[in-house]
Amino acid sequence: MSEYLISVAVFVGIWVSLALSLNILTGYAGQVSLGHAAFFGIGAYVSAVLAVRYGQSFWVDFTGAILITGLAGTILGLPSLRVRHDFLVLATMGINFVVVALFKYVDFFGGAMGLVNIPAPTLFGQPFRGGLPYLLLTVAYVFFAWLVSWYISKTWVGLAFQTIRLDEDAAAAVGVSSPRFKIYAFGISAALAGGAGSLYGHFIGSVFPDTFVFVESIAILSMVVFGGVGTLRGPIVGAIILKAAPEMLRFVQDYRFTIYGALLVLMMLFQPMGLIGDDSWLWRNLTRPFRRQTKTSPESQEASQ
Amino acid sequence: MPFLQNLSNALVLACTYILMAMGLSMVYGVLKILHVAHAAVYTIGAFVGLLAYGWFGNFWIALLVAMAASGLMGVLIYRGVYFYMLDAPRTVPLIASIGLFVMFTDLLQKDFLMGPYQQALPVGGAGMPRIRTEYFSMTPKQILIVLVTVVLLALVYLILSRTRIGLGWKAAAMDREMASAVGVNLNLVVALNFFLGSALAGAAGVLVGVYNNSVFATMGDLPSYKAFIIIVLGGMGSLPGVIVASLILAIAENFLVASVGYVLPRDAIAFLILILMLMFKPHGLLGQE
Q1: CA-nearest residue of chain A to B37?
Q2: Residue contact B267–A222, C-beta within 8 A
């Protein structure tokens, strides 16, 4: 595998974990966020500050990024307790702008020039930046993000998230505290994005405020929505396609955001559940051979219960 | 700087905010859609204004052409996209709107449209006089902006209060299904709503382009985010709220930034206000509920 392919694969992996993390918030808990790049950025900056200003090793930076970004997500998720839907979208958008402005205008974070010379991570005294080891590290992190998502989707936490997504008042009526689970969703989602930020910073060796702007939040949301929001497979496939395509095809690189935008509009018009979301055209046809043929429709099952 | 001079500068800034945010608020009032793509309509207005000024060499014709073009753009966005999503969950039109915004902004930056560079729009003052008093002065461009805004606002007010279309809007804003049941032609009313709101945004684009003597593909980004702040501040869907909130934001920017602008850039301050506003008074200053 060439160095170039490996670095593309690392980027794809980082964005897959970002998409998975946003999916926990937007897909499971139903809180649409246009500020996910802020958490990505907070993770990258926490880890860069720990490495550059305090000379900590990669593993400390990485853990610190996850923990502190999770904490930041818990705090920045507070507006979600007051506002819903469109208002929350505006609030998260505002958070993204304020966070990027802080990176840009506070000297401690390096200002517009960013933080550079982030050392390569080491394992058993061996530094590694590019190459297969870093790819393995990224894949391991993607697996971790997937595992967290899978665990949530299979347990009562996932059920609670689903309840507040579908109807907050009904959730309260059956004893699910929606403030508590919204904050959980923000915290978990931000923590995972923070880890991805740390991986990104250590891979590039530098962080700049412009990487984490509002448009990147839109890109991450596009990946989740394109693949299929609220499923385990959707965000992974969406991120792989939308992140790898611009790297592979020159045309796609030039028209990256035109294509992202057009895809979002077309998806919403024709397949609001995403490319391979539940009940999408492609997923129905892909899974047809594997489904057991049953004569009963869901309605009649409900009736018979 | 003297107090009155600051105030007159704030007034000019507020006028551009009002034109921009009015359409956003009108769309939200009737359809309850957060029309993110409004920013693209604003930029398209400025771009068409630039082209039309190149062809006709007359500011007023250019302004009308730009308003017509951006109005049509708004109707196209409604009929082509939002129309099919009126009964879908609210995230569906929202995400589609974000998609439209990203798509148009990126397309406009391509060489066959505006290109990535700033282009001059050297209209000057379009024959407006200059006001110079002891206390404050206004350039012809500033007078032009205030004049156009006042005329357009008067027009909107007349349509809202004196015509059946305005009545239809109010009915549709209260309850879409009920309005349609009592005989409001919902399609026409909403399309006109989009046309007028988008035409106002187009006018704002041209005026800001003239004021700064520059038109560029991403010029809509910042005003549109400001417009969101304004409709939150004024109460989503409230038109008087838009005017009040625009004045508040413009005055705050002109007066406060001088004293606290060192810590954060002024745009970040505006967003901080937005977040605090959402947390403590989510229905705005003049909003209902």
Answers
A1: A261
A2: no
State the SS3 of chain B. CCHHHHHHHHHHHHHHHHHHHHHHHHHHHHHCCCCCCHHHHHHHHHHHHHHHHHHHCCHHHHHHHHHHHHHHHHHHHHHHCHHHHCCCCCHHHHHHHHHHHHHHHHHHCCCCCCCCCCECCCCCCCCCCCEECCCCEECHHHHHHHHHHHHHHHHHHHHHHHCHHHHHHHHHHHCHHHHHHCCCCHHHHHHHHHHHHHHHHHHHHHHHHHHHCCECCCCCHHHHHHHHHHHHHHCCCCHHHHHHHHHHHHHHHHHHHHHHCCCCCHHHHHHHHHHHHHHHCCCCCCCCC
Q: Quote the pTM value.
A: 0.83
- For residue B1, being part of any structural domain is answered with no
For residue B170, being part of any structural domain is answered with yes
List the single residue in B with minimal CA-CA distance to A264: B99
Instruction: Answer yes or no: do A87 and B278 touch at CB < 8 A.
Output: yes
CATH number 1.10.3470 given to A3-304? yes
How many domains would you assign to chain B?
Answer: 1
Using a CB–CB cutoff of 8 Å, tell me whether B92 touches chain A.
Answer: yes
pLDDT single digits (tens) B38-83: 889 999 999 999 999 888 888 899 999 999 999 999 999 999 888 8
**Which of B81, B103, B224, B269 to mutate to probe the A interface, most A CBs <10 Å?**
B103
The whole domain housing B62 covers 19-220
Domain ranges of chain A: 3-304
Q: Is A89 on the interface with B (CB under 8 A)?
A: yes
- The per-residue pLDDT for range A236-270, each reduced to its tens digit, is 999 998 888 877 777 777 788 888 888 888 888 88
Q: Is residue B279 part of a domain?
A: no
Asked if A169 reaches chain B (Cβ–Cβ under 8 Å), the answer is no
